[in-house]
UniProtKB/TrEMBL annotation:
This protein's record includes keyword Magnesium: no
Keyword flag Repressor: yes
Portion annotated as DNA-binding: 52-71
Gene Ontology molecular functions: DNA-binding transcription factor activity; transcription cis-regulatory region binding
Record-linked SUPFAM superfamilies: Homeodomain-like, Tetracyclin repressor-like, C-terminal domain
Protein's name according to its UniProt entry: TetR family transcriptional regulator
PANTHER family, alphabetized: HTH-TYPE TRANSCRIPTIONAL REGULATOR RUTR, TRANSCRIPTIONAL REGULATORY PROTEIN
Domain HTH tetR-type: 29-89
Amino acid sequence: MCEWIYAYGVKQHFSSVWTRENRPAKSTALSRDQIVRAAMELLDAEGLDALSMRRLGARLGSGATSIYWHVANKDELLELVMDEVFGKVALPDPSVVGWRDAASMFAYGLRTALFEHPWSVALVGTRPSLGPNAMEISARLLRTFSLAGFEGMALDYASSTLMSYVLGVTTPEIAWRAAMAGAELSDEGLMAGMKSAVDRAAVDHPELAARYAEYAGMDPGTSRELNFDFGLTCILDGLQERLRQASMEPGATRPGTATPHEAGSSKA
C-alpha cells in the first residue's frame, strides 16, 4: 500500500500489485501464473464484466482465498493480466532492423494483442504500467527512438505519439466489432441494411456520397487495415521529418496557426 499526500495535507492510499514483492505460492495453493492464465481465459471468453474473484475461484476449482494470497483486489488482478497482454507485443532490436521497422513492428504487435484481448483497451491508462513486460517494451521503445536521434523529452513525446496512434485507431474498431457481434451482424450485412439511410443522409453532401460509393465495393476489413497502414506511415514520416529540423525543443513548432481556443470554436 502506498501513501500519497495531496493538497491540504489529505492522505490517500493507492494500492498496486507492483508496490510489493510477489508472494510465493503455498505448497497446496495456486500460483500467481495459474491465476493470471485463468483470468485471461475468462476475460477472453466473456469480457470484463464477467470477471469476479468468486467466478475465477470456481474456474480454478478453488476458493477466492487462494487468489487473495496474491492480489488484494480485482484491480490488482487486472494489473497482472494487462502486463500479460503487453508481454505479447514484440519489439525487435532497432540496431538490427532499424528504428522505423522496429517502431512499425511494435505498432502492429500492439494492435494485434489488443484485438486478441479486446477487453484490454478499457484498461490501458487506468492502472500503473509497472509490470516487467510493460517496463521492457517501454524501455525498448525509448531505445528505438533514441537510436533514431530523439533526445530528452522528445524521446517520451515520440513514444507517446506512436502508442496514442495505435490506441486511437484500434479502440473504436474493437468497439465496432463488439457492437456487430452483439447485433449478430457482419460488416457486409450492416452496410447492405444501412445503404438507403446512408444515401439519404449524404444527399446534401456530395463529397461524402462519393466516398461512400467508393467504399461500397471494398472489403471493410481490408479498408480498416489500409487506413491503419496509412496513418502509421504518416506518423513515422512525421517523426522522421521532425528529426531533420534544427530544433526539437517543445514549442519550437506548432501543429497549426490556430490557438486551442480558436480550434474549438465554430466560425460562420
